[in-house]
Amino acid sequence: MSEAVLSMFDAIAGRYDTLNHVLSLGRDVVWRRKAVALLPALNTHATVLDLCGGTGDFCLALRNRGIESACVIGDFSQPMLKLGKGKGLSAEFIVLDALNPPFPKQTFDAVLCGFGMRNLDDLGNGIRLVKDLLKPGGVFLTLEFFRPQSVFTRFFYRVLAPIFIPFLGRTMGSKREAYEYLVKSVQRFRSVEEYAALCRASGFGKVQTLSCDFGIAHAVLAVKEKE
Fold first, then answer.
1. Which of 39, 45, 74, 224 minimizes the C-alpha distance to 135?
2. Is the pTM of this model over 0.90?
3. Torsional sign, CA 149, 151, 157, 158
4. What angle do CA 62, 40, 115 make, to 5 degrees?
5. 205 with 226: CB under 8 angstroms?
6. 104: Cβ–Cβ under 8 A, 6 or more apart, which residues?
7. What's the pLDDT tens digit per position in 137-192?
8. Angle between the 57-64 and 27-37 helix axes, to the nearest 10 degrees?
9. Could you give the C-alpha distances from 97 to 76, 120, 160, in angstroms and in order?
10. Cβ proximity of 72 and 94 under 8 Å
């Protein structure tokens, strides 16, 4: 990830959660809940990495579902992680680069990534690194805004979002450029079908997708085959 993207996330960290809830009309909470529901049963001894975990909302969704597995929250923005520490999560917080994770292979039973994969400079390598971090049979759960494909999502991301998302971000005291970046990053990202195909090409077996709110967001669950 570039220094410019890191600087942007550092700058908006204090308003990140509030802006996400406002901009999505609270639906981001529902999307995480739906995504977490795709996970297979995780026991208390399971290890989970929340990659690009920001302020820890994905691990919070796990806890709210009653899953108390050991969670590591890793993000490249220290201010974001600092906010996550205030949420009472029993998790380890680590500053890390998703393309250079400081963990041995086959460390985790599950890796989660919410709205972070499209920020990677090398998406294919990022997915392969996640696969390496997973134990055989482990799962990779992505929640993301993918490049729009339907008439509705194209209208939403190409007409509505470029107008109201930066405007609301600026109105609430955040940098307009940060939310202009959000919209542009969605438009140039992979479609959910392309992302699922890339997961399969990277060595994952079963890949399942779930559309949220008519395709505004998608959850993708990819399973690493057992050896």
1. 224
2. yes
3. positive
4. 50
5. no
6. none
7. 999 999 999 999 999 899 888 888 887 777 766 676 556 677 778 888 999 999 99
8. 60
9. 6, 9, 32
10. yes
Residue type, 82: K
Ramachandran bin of 145, using left for φ above 0, alpha for ψ from -120 to 50, beta for the remaining angles: beta
Q: Which H or E run contains 93?
A: strand 91-95
Axis-axis angle for helices 161-171, 16-23 (nearest 10)? 140
Q: Which domains does the chain have, with CATH numbers?
A: 3-224 (3.40.50.150)
Of 52 and 172, more confident: 52
102: its two tokens: 């400081």
The contacts found for 15-22 with CB under 8 angstroms, 24 or more apart, are 15/172, 15/173, 15/174, 16/54, 16/55, 16/80, 16/83, 17/55, 17/57, 17/83, 18/172, 19/168, 19/169, 19/172, 19/174, 19/179, 22/168, 22/172
pLDDT of residue 19 exceeding 80, the answer is no
Residues 181-218 have pLDDT tens digits of 888 899 999 999 999 999 999 999 999 999 999 999 99
Give the residue among 75, 48, 80 at the shortest CA–CA distance from 63: 48
Letter string b/e over residues 158-194, b meaning 16 or more CB atoms within 10 A of that residue's CB: eeebeeebbeebeeeebeeebbebbbeebeebbebee
- Rounded distance between C-alpha atoms, residue 18 and residue 3, angstroms: 24
